[in-house]
Amino acid sequence: MQDLGILEMIFGYITGQDFICMMEDYCDVYRQFSRGLTSYYENWTKRIQHQNTLCSYNTTKRAQLNTIKIAKELATIEDRRIQNIQQVINKYKQIVNDTYISSRIGLHQHRRTKEFKKQFKEAYQILNECKTKLDDFKNELKKAQDELRKADSACEIVFSNFQTTDKVRTRATETQTKRRDNVKKINDQISLFEDKHQQAKKTYRHKAKAIFYECQKEEEHRLDLIKDTLSDFCQAIKIDEQADLDKIYTNLAHHIQTKQNSFDDLMFWAQCYGVIDQINTHDDLSTSITKTSTIKKQLTIVEEPSIIGSPIMTKKSDKKVQEQIYPAIPNDIEEEETTKTKITKKNNKSVNSKQKTAETTESNTANILASV
């Protein structure tokens, strides 16, 4: 009975505290993760913003900053997750504090521990009284039997001695009879209390089962509470905003693909540093750069054709477009670019040129280069 009270008083509370610590440690993992995301967002935002503007600017820079901003949004989601977990912990902690109260010895015991101990004590009291009386009668029986053996010995000695008087023999016989009657009486009482003891056992077991059933209900409530709290805990860990989270990543990917524009960045750079003149309309600028991009593809140096006599043509507009876009480039760079433009695409009439001689081919090539 006392062991049951001690177990109920100590281990139930200790188990509850361990469960609380388990959930709090799990919550700390997410709390550290959230702090790490926030720190990452702040540090890298500052770092990207302080990058050299010669190489970090406009839409590309904004795309990087928007990517870093995801960390802040994730931290917000993690903070909501932490808040949900903390609500579950606080709810369970409140129930534990209401269930287990502090005792005088500094420990915590179940609020019904005293009630159960009192019921067990009352139920056991009748059984204990019967057992105590039964033990007393057994001790008396042992003494009475010892006295009866002494009386039997004395009687035997008296009747074996022919010199003893009748009065002594009568007194010895009466003592023997009295001791024998006392043993019989005690045996009858023992039999009676043994029956009472058996009945007290049945009564105690019945009451003990009822009390134990109440203890089981409290224990079942404690275990079910842990189960329900674990379910709530898992639900709190789960992200309710999973669809929103997926949308954040989808929007970011779409933003990077559509809003990050290397062409706009190049024009932004060129205008900021005076590489090109201010252009009135974006369409004109786009047309110029589109032409430049097309021309650059055509300026790729190709290997000499295996068929002798295949002439190589150039476009006269290359240099003009480059001069329009890059007026501030030094002359030596212009000459180098102009030299590259003199090597161009193959002529579609390469079949007819097969019949020409090597001398004619060289002459035509020289004339074309001279015209450029």
TrEMBL record:
Keyword Coiled coil: yes
Organism: Didymodactylos carnosus
Keyword Coiled coil found: yes
InterPro entries in the record: AH/BAR_dom_sf
Coiled coil: 127-154
Name of the protein described by the UniProt record: F-BAR domain-containing protein
Keywords: Coiled coil
Region (Disordered): 337-372
Ranges of biased composition (kind: Polar residues): 349-372
Domain of life: Eukaryota
